[in-house]
Amino acid sequence: MENTEAKKRIFSGVQPSGNLTIGNYLGAIKNWTTLQDDYECLYCVVDQHAITVRQTPADLRRRTYEIMAIYIACGLDPVKNIMYVQSHVPAHVQLSWVLNCYTMFGELSRMTQFKDKSAKNADNINAGLFTYPTLMASDILLYQTDLVPVGEDQRQHIELTRDIANRFNSVYGETFRVPEPYITKGAKIYSLAEPAKKMSKSDENVNAYVSILDKKDDIIRKFKRAVTDSDTCVCRAEGKDGINNLMTIYSCFTGKSDEEIEREFAGKGYGDFKAAVGEVCAESLDPIRSEFDRLMKDKAYLEGIFKENSEKASYLARKTLSKVYRKVGFVQI
Ligand code: ATP
Ligand code: LTN
Questions:
Q1: Catalytic: 198?
Q2: What's the DSSP call for residue 261?
Q3: Residues 306-323: what's their mean pLDDT?
Q4: Domains and their CATH numbers in the chain
Q5: How many DSSP H helices and E strands does the chain contain?
């Protein structure tokens, strides 16, 4: 396989389908920044996945720049990592056609994200939404990826990616490296309005999520309004979904354990705790927002990154694609 050098390879991506939330940050991007020295990393803005749900073209375009700016503002280095846009590397969709022919209808029907999104977009259950996981498998398998750092909600897609890779390898011999999911703490942040549901950037209720780019006042207000329970104890327990979620968020931002948090807020009410979560969240996100504002004023810089990194990604992707084309019997010219 191609990446025989000492460093393992990592691939992950975010859809430019809304304003990134602290769920995306704590579940994915924040962890990516800790990996960039020890792994060879590719971080993609998956715009082709985003159009499985209707997008306004101008918003999609703007958000593609924004996600790249957020990646950099969160501390990802565009020289050390290959950071690029999915539609700039045609090999993703080229491989996905082949993989569609090695993925079963039944497998795709079982994907919970497909079921959730079909329910939410009942008037637009398109074929792309259905085959979304084979494009994701292509993203990952094209680069002979070892590890995929994602939030818990993506575990099922990675399992499917592994099944597709194993199936292809067993028919044609070793072609794809079989990737592992890399899922860490903060892997699931829940909605502030309905704490049994995952926090999602495409939620219609803006009070259900905190965006990475929200202003301090909004952050404090959203946490103040967060749905909790009628108990008063700041402690983790079954049935206390709202408080459990706030404890996870507080812990991710401060590094404190549940015991430390419980001690810190012993004898204090939910009001104090919510205010503290809001403060620490706003404080952590403030430097990211300033850097984001600076980067968004420099489109040429972002475009330079798009171009340079898509060339690096294309170079790696072509190696796997041509191997696959040869194995399935396409004539090479
Ligand atoms: P959408 O709601 O539009 O489907 P999303 O908010 O789920 O989008 P994605 O672009 O699909 O965001 O996900 C980007 C990354 O963020 C993925 O690794 C995903 O697992 C992670 N992620 C998304 N939401 C959460 C969450 N609530 N908690 C933890 N991680 C999350
Ligand atoms: N499906 C993911 C986004 C995504 C991704 C990927 C993540 C697309 N391609 C490849 C990791 C690896 C999501 O909805 N969060």
A1: yes
A2: H
A3: 98
A4: 4-188+299-328 (3.40.50.620), 214-293 (1.10.240.10)
A5: 14, 5
